[in-house]
Amino acid sequence: MYCSYVRQLADALSYCHAKRVIHRDIKPENILLDQKGNVKIADFGWAVVASHSRRQTVCGTLDYLPPEMISGKSHDHTVDNWAIGVLLYEMLVGKPPFEYSDQSQTLQAIMHCRFIVSA
Predict the structure, then answer these.
(1) Is 80 exposed, middle or buried (0-12, 13-18, 19+ CB in 10 A)?
(2) Which residues contact 59 (CB under 8 A, 6 or more apart)?
(3) Does a structural domain hold residue 117?
(4) Is residue 95 part of a domain?
(5) Is 80 one of the catalytic residues?
(6) Cα(59)–Cα(76) distance, rounded to whole angstroms?
(7) Catalytic one of 11, 25, 63, 80
(8) What is the pLDDT of residues 51-105, one digit of tens each?
(9) Residue 15, SS3?
(10) Residue 66, domain member (yes or no)
Protein backbone atom coordinates (compact mmCIF):
# COMPACT_ATOMS: atom_id res chain seq x y z
CA MET A 1 0.00 0.00 0.00
CA TYR A 2 2.72 2.52 1.02
CA CYS A 3 4.71 1.70 -2.11
CA SER A 4 1.72 2.60 -4.27
CA TYR A 5 1.29 5.94 -2.49
CA VAL A 6 4.97 6.82 -2.77
CA ARG A 7 5.04 5.80 -6.45
CA GLN A 8 1.96 7.91 -7.20
CA LEU A 9 3.43 10.87 -5.32
CA ALA A 10 6.74 10.51 -7.17
CA ASP A 11 4.89 10.33 -10.51
CA ALA A 12 2.81 13.41 -9.68
CA LEU A 13 5.89 15.38 -8.64
CA SER A 14 7.74 14.22 -11.74
CA TYR A 15 4.89 15.69 -13.79
CA CYS A 16 5.07 18.95 -11.82
CA HIS A 17 8.84 19.11 -12.22
CA ALA A 18 8.54 18.52 -15.98
CA LYS A 19 6.33 21.63 -16.01
CA ARG A 20 9.01 23.43 -13.91
CA VAL A 21 6.78 23.53 -10.81
CA ILE A 22 8.48 22.95 -7.45
CA HIS A 23 5.96 22.29 -4.65
CA ARG A 24 8.31 22.99 -1.70
CA ASP A 25 5.87 21.87 1.03
CA ILE A 26 5.35 18.13 0.61
CA LYS A 27 4.08 16.74 3.93
CA PRO A 28 1.27 14.38 5.02
CA GLU A 29 -1.26 17.21 5.35
CA ASN A 30 -0.75 18.08 1.68
CA ILE A 31 -1.23 14.55 0.35
CA LEU A 32 -4.86 13.60 -0.25
CA LEU A 33 -6.42 10.28 -1.25
CA ASP A 34 -9.59 9.90 -3.28
CA GLN A 35 -12.13 7.08 -2.76
CA LYS A 36 -10.08 4.79 -5.00
CA GLY A 37 -6.80 5.40 -3.16
CA ASN A 38 -5.37 7.75 -5.78
CA VAL A 39 -2.89 10.31 -4.46
CA LYS A 40 -3.58 14.00 -5.02
CA ILE A 41 -1.14 16.77 -4.09
CA ALA A 42 -2.73 19.76 -2.34
CA ASP A 43 -1.71 23.23 -1.16
CA PHE A 44 0.53 24.78 -3.77
CA GLY A 45 0.91 27.91 -1.62
CA TRP A 46 4.72 27.64 -1.49
CA ALA A 47 5.00 26.29 -5.04
CA VAL A 48 6.98 28.18 -7.63
CA VAL A 49 7.30 27.95 -11.38
CA ALA A 50 11.07 27.83 -11.65
CA SER A 51 13.07 29.03 -14.58
CA HIS A 52 16.48 27.51 -15.19
CA SER A 53 17.82 29.31 -12.13
CA ARG A 54 17.90 27.80 -8.69
CA ARG A 55 15.73 29.15 -5.86
CA GLN A 56 16.89 30.83 -2.63
CA THR A 57 13.70 31.18 -0.55
CA VAL A 58 13.51 29.18 2.67
CA CYS A 59 9.93 27.92 2.87
CA GLY A 60 7.90 24.87 3.77
CA THR A 61 7.47 22.90 6.98
CA LEU A 62 10.47 22.41 9.26
CA ASP A 63 10.40 18.60 9.60
CA TYR A 64 10.47 18.22 5.79
CA LEU A 65 13.04 20.88 4.84
CA PRO A 66 16.23 19.66 3.13
CA PRO A 67 19.70 20.60 4.41
CA GLU A 68 20.47 22.92 1.47
CA MET A 69 17.40 25.03 2.17
CA ILE A 70 18.16 25.28 5.89
CA SER A 71 21.75 26.30 5.20
CA GLY A 72 20.60 29.06 2.82
CA LYS A 73 22.02 27.44 -0.31
CA SER A 74 20.13 27.62 -3.55
CA HIS A 75 17.83 24.71 -4.34
CA ASP A 76 15.80 23.19 -7.14
CA HIS A 77 13.11 20.51 -7.59
CA THR A 78 15.16 18.00 -5.60
CA VAL A 79 13.79 19.56 -2.39
CA ASP A 80 10.56 17.71 -3.21
CA ASN A 81 12.49 14.45 -3.61
CA TRP A 82 13.97 14.93 -0.12
CA ALA A 83 10.46 15.40 1.26
CA ILE A 84 9.34 12.11 -0.33
CA GLY A 85 12.10 10.35 1.61
CA VAL A 86 11.03 12.03 4.85
CA LEU A 87 7.41 11.04 4.15
CA LEU A 88 8.36 7.42 3.47
CA TYR A 89 10.28 7.28 6.74
CA GLU A 90 7.25 8.71 8.54
CA MET A 91 4.94 6.15 6.92
CA LEU A 92 7.15 3.30 8.07
CA VAL A 93 8.15 4.53 11.54
CA GLY A 94 5.17 6.68 12.52
CA LYS A 95 6.99 9.98 13.00
CA PRO A 96 9.32 12.22 10.98
CA PRO A 97 13.02 11.30 11.17
CA PHE A 98 14.09 14.72 12.43
CA GLU A 99 11.37 15.45 14.99
CA TYR A 100 12.66 17.10 18.17
CA SER A 101 10.87 19.23 20.76
CA ASP A 102 13.37 22.04 20.18
CA GLN A 103 13.49 23.74 16.77
CA SER A 104 17.26 24.25 16.87
CA GLN A 105 17.79 20.53 17.55
CA THR A 106 15.59 19.70 14.57
CA LEU A 107 17.59 22.07 12.36
CA GLN A 108 20.89 20.55 13.49
CA ALA A 109 19.61 17.00 12.98
CA ILE A 110 18.54 17.82 9.42
CA MET A 111 21.81 19.62 8.64
CA HIS A 112 23.84 16.61 9.77
CA CYS A 113 21.30 14.04 8.54
CA ARG A 114 21.20 12.64 12.07
CA PHE A 115 18.24 10.41 12.90
CA ILE A 116 17.60 7.26 14.88
CA VAL A 117 16.01 4.25 13.25
CA SER A 118 13.52 2.67 15.64
CA ALA A 119 13.86 -1.04 16.30
Answers:
(1) buried
(2) 24, 25, 46, 69
(3) no
(4) yes
(5) no
(6) 13
(7) 25
(8) 776 777 777 889 999 999 999 888 899 999 999 999 999 999 999 999 888 999 9
(9) helix
(10) yes
